[in-house]
Amino acid sequence: MAHIQVKNFDKPDETRSFEGKGHADIVMMADRAVGRGVFEPGWRWSNNVKPIAGTDLCQVSHLGYCVSGHMRVYMADGTEQEVNPGDAVAIPPGHDAEVVGDETCVLLDFGEISEYAKRS
C-alpha cells in the first residue's frame, strides 16, 4: 500500500555545503531527491560548486521553482536567462549561474539533483 510522505526542509535528510555562500538541503521523497538551494549574494556556480563537481559547467538537469531572490543562468551556447521569484524553470546540463543582486536566492529543485554538490 502506498503511503503519504511529508518532510520539512528545516530538517533535511542531508545538507550539502557549497564552497562558501550557501548550501543545498536535500529530502528524499518517493526514492527521489528534492532540493532547496540557498544561494547567498555573490554565489556563482563556477566559484562555489565547480570545485566540488570537478566539471567546467554544471552537468545537472534542474527542474525548479524560484522562491526568492534572482539568479542568472548562462548556457554553454551563450544564451542566458534570469530567474525571478515565482518563476518555474527547466535548466538543461551545460550551464553556469550566479546570484543577481544582494538578496539570497532560494530555489526548489525537483530535477536530477541526487549528486548535485555532493562530495565524493
UniProtKB/TrEMBL annotation:
Transmembrane segments: none annotated. Pfam families: Cupin_2. InterPro entries: Cupin_2, RmlC-like_jellyroll, RmlC_Cupin_sf. CDD domains: cupin_DUF861 (cd06990). Residues 62-109 form the Cupin type-2 domain. It comes from the Bacteria. This is Cupin type-2 domain-containing protein. It comes from Actinomadura namibiensis.
